[in-house]
């Protein structure tokens, strides 16, 4: 099975942070993906190779790029992996190939430098894997969601789920590492409200046994504000 990796490269004001990102990228390039597609946001390409395609952009990467590559007929049957730039992928991600069936999305949580699974893994994922196949227009039209916004991963999972995909988070076996020495702050006012799919952690072995699937929920801004002010007791 052909394996395609997607991520974004961008200008970083901190030399230390840039070093961390380069470390992640070089690691991921060494894993053996057949094709690598790098979206360079307002910056000259830095990473090249016979299997590397550099794409010039002027904005933050959105999930639409991931969906378009999945939906491209020349890629049909390939494993397509999108990851945040500051993630070192676990080589075990290739173990998903035998169970990468049509209408399955893997939305995978990360591990931190202390070796622990990220807190709240059911609502925080950083890597996505799907089989290249025709994608419903509902997902195509709604997937222009920038990566990195609070709630973006749960909105993406719900979009796929709503058109019949099963969504799993096999992070108990696939230990992708988050490389970030200084915590970043994400303002909740940037949260994407609407239909969410929270995806609990599981193992690869759990996937074939699961009879129940996550249930979508609708998260409106009103609900969050109401909890904050004590409207719901």
Notes on the protein architecture:
This protein is an alpha/beta fold and 233 residues long. The protein has one domain (3-228): Spore Coat Polysaccharide Biosynthesis Protein SpsA, Chain A (Alpha-Beta Complex). It has helices at 15-29, 63-70, 137-142, 152-162, 204-207, 221-228; strands at 3-10, 35-41, 52-57, 79-83, 87-88, 104-108, 127-131, 166-168, 177-178, 194-196, 217-219. Strands 3-2-1-4-7-6-8 form a 7-stranded mixed β-sheet, covered by helices on one side. A two-stranded antiparallel ribbon has the order 5-9. It has a two-stranded antiparallel sheet with strand order 10-11. Helix 1 links the parallel strand 1 and strand 2 (35-41). The protein is globular and about 45 Å long. Mean pLDDT is 91; it is low at 229-233.
In short:
The protein has 233 residues and is an alpha/beta fold. The chain has six helices and eleven strands.
Fill in the keyword field for this structure:
single chain; 233 residues; alpha/beta; Spore Coat Polysaccharide Biosynthesis Protein SpsA, Chain A; 7-stranded mixed beta sheet; two-stranded antiparallel ribbon; 6 helices; 11 strands; 22% helix; globular; disordered C terminus
- pLDDT averaged over residues: 91
Q: DSSP helix count?
A: 6
Low-confidence stretches: 229-233
Using the alpha-carbon principal axes, give the shape.
Answer: globular
Please report the distance between the alpha carbons of the first and last residues. Answer: 52 Å
Largest sheet: spatial strand order: 3-2-1-4-7-6-8
Domain module tally: 1
The helix fraction, in percent, is 10-25%
Question: What's the count of strands?
Answer: 11
Assembly state: single chain
Evaluate the radius of gyration: 17 Å
Query: SS-based structural class?
Result: alpha/beta
Please describe the biggest sheet, giving its number of strands, its sense, and whether it closes into a barrel. Answer: 7 strands, mixed
- State the CATH class: Alpha Beta
Architecture, according to CATH? Answer: Alpha-Beta Complex
Under CATH, the topology can be stated as: Spore Coat Polysaccharide Biosynthesis Protein SpsA, Chain A
SS strand fraction: 15-25%
Elements, N to C (H/E): EHEEHEEEEHHEEEHEH
